[in-house]
Design a protein that fits this description.
Radius of gyration of chain A: 16 Å
CATH topology of chain A: Jelly Rolls
Shape of chain A: elongated
Helix content of chain A: 25-40%
Oligomer: homotrimer
Number of domains of chain A: 1
CATH class of chain A: Mainly Beta
Distance between the termini of chain A: 5 Å
Pfam families (chains A, B, C): YjbQ (PF01894)
Largest sheet of chain A: 5 strands, antiparallel
InterPro entries (chains A, B, C): UPF0047_YjbQ-like, YjbQ-like_sf
Structural class of chain A: alpha+beta
CATH superfamily of chain A: YjbQ-like
CATH architecture of chain A: Sandwich
Organism (chains A, B, C): Sulfurisoma sediminicola
Number of helices of chain A: 3
Number of strands of chain A: 8
Family (chains A, B, C): Belongs to the UPF0047 family.
Protein name (chains A, B, C): Secondary thiamine-phosphate synthase enzyme
Order of helices and strands of chain A: EEHEEHHEEEE
Strand content of chain A: 35-45%
Chain lengths: ~140, ~140, ~140
């Protein structure tokens, strides 16, 4: 049984989903591990992880529209607005999605379904450099 | 340290929660592993995983009612409606719940609480055959 | 490769976020494992886990305010209200957050970001004693 890990830096264009499936798959291949568990962990509280459809970009558009309606920026009553109107809504979007996702690896392939991609979801308006830790255990 | 994995196929009756705790426990028992980590992974973007109360079915009814009010089918403005009015709401429900859940295994038993069950949540109206990968590492 | 686990009991003051980062870090240090994967698992369906900002307590205030507006207690139409007006909303808050979170451990440190803390989120009004299982695998 072995382990591997890598710190992935993801440049985001502001609010939106950035696919990192290829980076995760490349890390898995380079590790030489064929069976095990990959864990992706996002080191932020205003960006998160999500597995969603990677075929039709309309899904990402509609997801963002839903979350914007669910948790609009700049709500009166919010106390935490140090960094602007999108600050607290970014925390809320993070709470409603994932900070950590585990994906089994079987016979050299992540078991993602046909339409599944792994995404970093930037919840802030401006571009950031985000850190995702990839950890793999197996053999 | 050893690993085991199994592809579980779950027939769903349309939208609703299908308990798979017994299937997960049977896989664990068959593996012969007594201490470790079970990961359940759902290979879809319109169905998801959830740990919830398995005692009172009213909980599942009210959960479904809440999500239906939160994200009604067939919203005007949605771009992604290729497969019908329940298509995009299924993606939203998936984003708000889990695709992957890890459950520790201690002394031969999953550490689920007294009232906890593991469920596949079908978010589409029609019945489907869904795939859940179970992965276990431990000894 | 080795494993360790611990049952953590968390006394909650009623609805609100209780940080358990220090307890998780202490468990990791005591294990002697330097690289691996920590899994925290909450054994309840009316309390959950969340990674959020541990710097400004206003974030926790606003998160709670958001969830209260999203899923108010005592909704007419709810069938599951055996234990009071906060019973079903506690299940909903649990479904929308996490029951299980995996955090990689690299060179003796959990890879939490600078502002990230691990929290148990009590969703019931009254104080409870909650159980969180910590599981660690690595070497």
């Amino acid at each position: 049984m072995r382990q591997a890990n890598r710190l992935l830096t993801v440049a985001t264009p502001g609010r939106g989903l950035v696919e990192i499936t290829a980076e995760a798959a490349a890390f898995v291949r380079a590790s030489g591990i064929a069976n095990g568990l990959l864990t992706a962990f996002c080191r932020h509280t205003s960006a998160s992880l999500l597995i969603q459809e990677n075929a039709d970009p309309d899904v990402r558009h509609d997801l963002d529209a839903f979350f914007t309606r669910l948790s609009p920026d700049g709500q009166p009553g919010w106390r935490h607005d140090n960094e602007g109107a999108d600050d607290m809504s970014a925390h809320i979007r993070t709470a409603l999605t994932q900070t950590s996702i585990g994906i089994p690896l079987v016979d050299g392939r992540l078991v993602l379904g046909t339409w599944q991609g792994l995404f970093l979801w930037e919840h802030r308006d401006r571009p950031y450099r985000r850190e995702v830790v990839l950890h793999l255990i197996g053999e």
